[in-house]
Fold this protein.
Amino acid sequence: MNIREMNKPLTSAALNETMAKKFGTKIDVDSFTLEQLQDARNKIRTKQFDIETNESFSGLSQNRTYSKNKLFLDVLNAAISERADVSDSALEEKKAERLEQGRQERLGRCKSSTYGSISRQEKEN
């Protein structure tokens, strides 16, 4: 392993593969909504906290359930952050679209009011 590989952000897919190799289990994160992922994450956090408070520090590394839940939690956190990044970029795109639409509407109103005043002047003459 190179030092450059240590700085790479881990994706949920890569963590899921690691979990499949170690524990023979995968999470189909695509089949869950963001809220469901967050709910599952909170439940696993609670389990982890209970194990941490009841187990000795040296016993944590040997506790298979703790290790599996920890990796589960890492996969869920990665999936949540990936979706948050996507939703943030989608929000930025929508915001830019709304600003552009507002600008176009304001330009349209300015043109119609300008043309309206010209046509009124023509009618008066």
In short: The chain has one domain: 10-99. The chain is about 80% helix and 0% strand. The helical segments are 3-6, 12-23, 34-54, 57-60, 64-124. The longest helix spans residues 64-124.
